[in-house]
């Protein structure tokens, strides 16, 4: 991951269809991990049928790591001024979500 993405606020949708919003605070290129800080979970938001979601947005998780292979969609919500690249994870502005191909 390029260091230029650090400090950017992003929204991630995982392969389990849960959405998380947080700030990129780190990455582990060797183990293919992305680390977010001050993370809020928004659940599946009706992306999965027959799944009950609770109001989890009130809880802020200080640090959370995601395997890059578990990230289905990554949107930049608020760019750090120098945002350019996130290594092998394709990203788009929040106006047009990008889905990773499998």
Automatic annotation (TrEMBL):
It comes from the Eukaryota. InterPro entries: Lsm14-like_N, LSM_dom_sf. Residues 1-95 form the Lsm14-like N-terminal domain. Pfam families: LSM14. Coiled coil: none annotated. This is Lsm14-like N-terminal domain-containing protein. It comes from Rotaria magnacalcarata.
